[in-house]
Design brief:
This protein has about 200 residues and is an alpha+beta fold. The C terminus is likely disordered. The chain contains two helices and nine strands, in the order E-E-E-E-E-E-E-H-E-H-E. The strands form two sheets. Strands 1, 2, 3, 4, 5, 8 and 9 form a seven-stranded mixed sheet that branches. It has a two-stranded antiparallel ribbon with strand order 6-7. The chain starts with 12 loop residues before the first strand and ends in a 7-residue tail after the last strand.
């Protein structure tokens, strides 16, 4: 296995966030892996990387991550980019609102701060990843190049099919790390989210 394509099992931050669901408060503890590069020779690691959230416990009860499915929470729209370092999407056209600084972060919502208990998972799409983790699902948030990417010389480097190639590389990386990557690498599914539901 190529060294830079090995999943960094021990390089994570342990976090806990609360989720209000059906009148109950759930404390979800998870391992956060940031900026994992999913290809051997990235053109730009800010776009060709992913964040991974692995649930550890819910309300103090351990979560078994040996066989659960893996959710790729995809925010790529209209072949635009997703910067995994900043959590800010590319702009498909001028009418799309861009997140302000601090609106991105971990799986609990804008900025990655803990839930204040006022949001409900059924009506707030920001909490899809946290809710999924409360059910034991592994979350992957991939970055990808898009048609809006330009290098220092103004040359576009993310034209189609770059976004599809990058998302496919993310899936291949997960499968390449079978037995190391948490969850069942044969049960990978994807959910596209709206720009307003970045996490």
């Amino acid at each position: 296995m190529v060294d830079n394509l090995c999943f960094p099992v021990d390089q994570y931050t342990l976090k806990t966030q609360e989720l209000k669901y059906e009148g109950s408060m759930l404390a979800v503890t998870y391992r956060e892996y940031r900026m994992v590069t999913y290809c051997a020779n990235p053109i730009d690691p800010d776009y060709q990387g992913m964040d991974v959230w692995v649930p550890v416990s819910v309300n103090g009860k351990d979560v078994d991550t040996s066989d659960p499915p893996i959710l790729i929470n995809n925010s790529i729209q209209a072949y635009t980019s997703w910067n995994i370092r900043t959590g800010i999407p590319g702009r498909p056209h001028p009418d799309v609102r861009m997140p302000s600084p601090g609106e991105h972060g971990g799986p609990g919502g804008p900025g990655g701060g803990p839930d204040d208990g006022t949001r409900h998972v059924k009506t707030d799409r920001n909490f899809l990843p946290l809710y999924a983790m409360s059910r034991g699902i592994i979350i992957v948030k991939p970055g990808a190049r898009g048609r809006d990417n330009r290098d220092a010389n103004g040359i576009y480097f993310g034209k189609a099919p770059a976004a599809v190639v990058d998302l496919k590389a993310c899936v291949r990386y997960i499968r390449h790390n079978k037995g190391v990557f948490p969850g069942n690498t044969d049960k990978i599914f994807s959910k596209e989210t709206l720009i307003k539901s970045t996490f």
